[in-house]
Specification:
Number of helices: 5
Shape: elongated
Structural class: mainly alpha
Distance between the termini: 71 Å
Radius of gyration: 17 Å
Helix content: over 70%
């Protein structure tokens, strides 16, 4: 069938986008990196590392809501023994705690 080579090229493209995005992120260009991780996910929406790095890029840029979405997707896709899992869970726990703190401080006192 003719689809096999296209699939292989697409997997290679996903890896290339991931590596290029990671290099940009490591060089301090989180915004540019996010664009590559988004493209990575258009080719493979279930690539755990692209979700992880897209979330990390969003978090660095202060977009906690979008970071949470991709961190949760990473957790759903990643192997439980992935070394990033504890850090991601901690981010989500801290984020939930901050939301609860903001919500309780916004409540009118009686």
């Amino acid at each position: 069938s003719r689809k096999a080579p296209a699939r292989a090229a697409s997997a290679a493209d996903v890896e290339r986008l991931y590596r290029e995005g990671k290099a940009l992120y490591d060089a301090g260009s989180a915004g540019e990196a996010a664009g590559l991780f988004e493209r990575c996910l258009t080719l493979d929406k279930n690539h755990p590392r692209c979700h992880l790095m897209l979330a990390t890029s969003y978090a660095r840029g202060g977009d906690t809501g979008r970071a949470e979405t991709h961190y949760r997707r990473f957790l759903a896709l990643a192997s439980p023994d992935d070394p990033a899992v504890p850090r991601v869970k901690k981010f989500l726990e801290d984020s939930d705690a901050q939301k609860k703190a903001r919500a309780s401080s916004a409540m009118p006192e009686r």
